[in-house]
Amino acid sequence: MTPFSRARRALLPLAALCAWATTLPLQAAEFPQRPVKIVVGFAPGGSTDSITRELARRLGRELGQTVIVDNKPGGGQVPAMQTAAGSGADGYTLVIGSPGGFSVSPHLYRKLPYDAREFVPIAAIATQANVLVARPDLPASNLRELMALAKTRKQGLNYGSFGSGTSAHLAMEMLKKQSGLDALHIAYKGDPPALLAIKGGEIDVAVITMFSAQPRIRSGELKGLAVLQARPDRNLPQLQTTAQAGYPDVDLPSWLGLFAPPGTPQPVVEKLEAATRKVLATPDFQAYVLTNGNEPLTLDNPAFLAMIQRQSAQLGQVIRDIKLQAD
């Protein structure tokens, strides 16, 4: 082999790298050239699905391409996260993130086919309070009064949630640990069976989503006792917060965010982020979020990631404390 041939062979990897690097701005300029898919780890019909579909409709206008929603419900949002992770890091498959997929499943499952920490944030979307509710005849009107009532009972309370390992369940377990409240957890598969149980007298109180709680509290069907977060919720600001009740560290609302699979090129991420934030900033989209029991979550991505990491540490500790295992 001549010296010229050896030099040429040595330069080939560098030439390939340069060619790849020059295609990145072109990729972003041309993206998207076909429909974009958003994977959702919940069944159709709930607030997460509704907000995602409204986001997809508006995002499609910004991107100039159809944005479709693909529902992949399943435990801990593992099927949705796995689908997105295996679909290619090109920006054409995104996923809706929430505490289940990012802050709970990594502590419940020993081996996941992806690392949630490697997903790339596009933008935070919304936050939703977990609401502690009771029947109207319960002799307590807020969280402090519920604590006082529990102390007068020979047997502890029981409470329902919309699922084992959900933010509602784990927030209540954190509250139990900090307050000394004696309450047995009964898990239901979603808000509807938990609502039937509380109305039927099977449980004393329930922790449900704001989406389900808001209309029932306003109609008088249920009594709202508290939101399991430190700040008041704009949908029902009269409800006592955990901070007002004396437990400021119990601050575990649910949240939604849009993410891209690990390795998605930065220029594509930036284009998706710009289009998404344009949608999120519109007053009518923010109003839509509120009508679905959520609040707009306005965080830049570094602050969003810090919030997720903080919540993951909190929930991981609760999971270990109660020795929760995956079903």
TrEMBL record:
Signal sequence extent: 1-28
InterPro entries, sorted: BUG, Bug_dom1
Keywords: Signal
Domain of life: Bacteria
SUPFAM superfamilies registered for this protein in UniProt: Periplasmic binding protein-like II
UniProt cross-references to CDD domains, sorted A to Z: PBP2_Bug_TTT (cd07012)
Segments passing through the bilayer: none
Similarity comment text for this entry: Belongs to the UPF0065 (bug) family.
PANTHER family: BLR1237 PROTEIN (PTHR42928:SF5), TRICARBOXYLATE-BINDING PROTEIN (PTHR42928)
Designated name of the protein: Putative exported protein
